[in-house]
Design brief:
Length: 118
């Protein structure tokens, strides 16, 4: 098992493995430390593209998904003292990638492998 496999096992990103896609990068989002979810997603896409986050501009992310709604559902607070504990995964396409935002904070960026699973 490679080190990358160990990392995949630890954070559970191999759940529901799709052989038509492979994970390019992942980034953990912590709302208490990282600011807004939009920025974390842009940084993850930039890493996948091998570019600066300032170069990830087209199309605008908000044309693909309502990031504020994801942030509120998974990481918003139900009260001032307790963070919301939503559970789930939101998947959406952005440029050539399938992005998965998980309620545990992991942002996964996947690309097509061109392999037909049948």
């Amino acid at each position: 098992m490679t080190n990358n496999d160990n990392e995949t096992e630890r954070n559970g990103s191999d759940l529901g493995r799709d052989t038509r896609r492979r994970q390019v990068t992942q980034r953990h989002y912590d709302p208490a430390r990282d600011g807004d979810l939009t920025t974390a997603i842009v940084f993850a896409v930039a890493e996948a593209e091998g570019v600066s986050p300032s170069e990830v501009t087209s199309p605008p992310l908000y044309d693909s998904v309502d990031v504020a709604a994801i942030e509120d559902a998974f990481f918003g607070s139900e009260s001032e003292s307790e963070p919301r504990r939503g559970a789930g995964v939101v998947e959406f396409r952005y440029v050539d990638y399938l992005l998965k935002v998980r309620s545990d904070g992991w942002i996964l960026v996947c690309e097509s492998t061109g392999v037909d699973p049948s």
